[in-house]
Amino acid sequence: MSDFLPKECDIVMEGGVTSGVVYPAFVARLAERFTLRSIGGTSVGAVAAVAAAAAQFKRNRVRKDGQGVDDGFHLLARLPGQLQESVDGHTRLFSLFQPCAALRPHFRAIAAALNETNKAKAAGYLSLAMLRHFPLGALAGAGLWLLGFLISSSLLGGHWPRVPLAGIASALWFGLCTFVGALGGALLQATLSAWRGLRDNRCGICSGLRTDAHNPPALTEWLHALVQDIAGLPEEAPLTFGQLRTSEPPIELALMTTGLSELRAHRLPHSSADLVFRASELSALFPSAVVDWMKARSRHTRHGARTVALLARMNAGGEDYYFMPDPDDLPLVVAARMSLSFPVLLQAVPLYRLRALPVHADGVGLLRVWFSDGGLTSNFPIHFFDNILPTRPTFGVTLQGDLEDGDPFAARVSLPSNNNSGVTAAYVPVDETDGRPSLPRFTGAILRTIRTWRDEALKRTPGYRDRVVQIRHTKREGGLNLNMTRAAIDVMSRSGDEAARQVIDRFLNPVERENGWLNHRWVRMRSTAAVLQETFAPLSEAWHDAHLTPSYEALWMAHGMDALPAYQLSKTNRTAGFALWERIVTLPQQVAPAELSAHAPRPQPELVIAPRLN
Prior knowledge:
eleven-stranded mixed sheet; 20 helices; 15 strands
């Protein structure tokens, strides 16, 4: 094998609910040729990420111990087949989503219309399911219509027409109006009960735990057992981020979640020391072994005496608050579930943030923070693990549900084969056939743009797009089609395998001029040179600006009484930092004749300062 071929890689996987069935085959095939070092994802991509991390963890252990050949990836490869297995008349995939009692009728009504792409048929199935699962509302609606009809008929002296055809038309019209009245009543009952049910169940239909002792494992239980099985660990000792970090070679896992109460994205594992959980609340969302593990590793060492005393007093009054474990002690399944909380379908995860509250007797209090699906803020965090000059490739996998039923299998997977591929921006049709905009499509485009515009921009950026493979599927597959057929699961799994094959063929091509990794490194270096030149020039101008008093140089070198009180530097660090600044601000003069932006890859990226998401 040629020396320039990479032996390690990173992976970032996009969210997409059941579309994630493509990932096990993709990861298993990729792992045949690469060691996975950094793994990230959002929503269902987070589920695939923790499973992949568990498999790499097991492989590292096997290599270290020299025992056997079971490295965990074979279990991952068999996962699509397991999801196709029949459970109570549905696939195992469908059985993972078990609705709470209050919202079970709503789930069943929605499920009746899944997998149906014909809008008229879907509306018909949904209407009939509404009448079936909300009978009281349907009877009330039909009864009110009949009562109104009888009253108006008697007041107006109305009677059935004597002409046969008119009588049939009247009967049909009467039946249709009765049906509409019943449907309206069912819809009203569904709306009122959904309002109460969502409020009582953390704004979600499914908790992730089984709703009956005789049911098969639900999503979170299944995922916990899967991760432990792949990693070769007992269920009582959850695989943690610390075990990945100390593995050899180390494994970095990063997932995205959204803190709705704080209006921002969060990267997991958390690095803050001010998060608290209630054991009783998490027990409704996670297996008992996971909650017990977190309670046993609740740390007080990073917290002040007032905070520890506050929780102790609250717990003495019958509460069950605990500090979140340190990042190294956080179970992978907890982070995955926080990332996977797809709105309405899966219940949100409540935690608490310690906040300084002057009006509080202790000066500190707890504010509840609701964590929901990571895809609300970044459904494809391709920026994870990114370095200005990469030392190994980071492969991204995106999902698109725009494939037509008759399209060939070859149309399912696409990976840029040259630097002119992948530039075209995404397109969402908004117009109807008559050229006027569709209001539902227009609204959907607004929401999707708000949610994914940054991800979409990165997909087109040079140095990003060449390592992003797109997997397409039909509207009957993936997405919210919880009851996909076995054939659909199988073809999507094969799409994942094909995506990995294309990545391997491109990035492990032994011909240098056709090798994707060498091309990727060159494009990144070419783009970075232009970006750095454009970034350093304003720095140099500001450093030498004679109108600023004091100058930036004087600000940096000030000490004693002249120095500002915030974030002070030692004399050694001040001197070393000044040497760094001098080198930076003189660079633009040294490369002044060059125009590195000319003919640089387009669209050209920019170097910006952004807050860390932890």
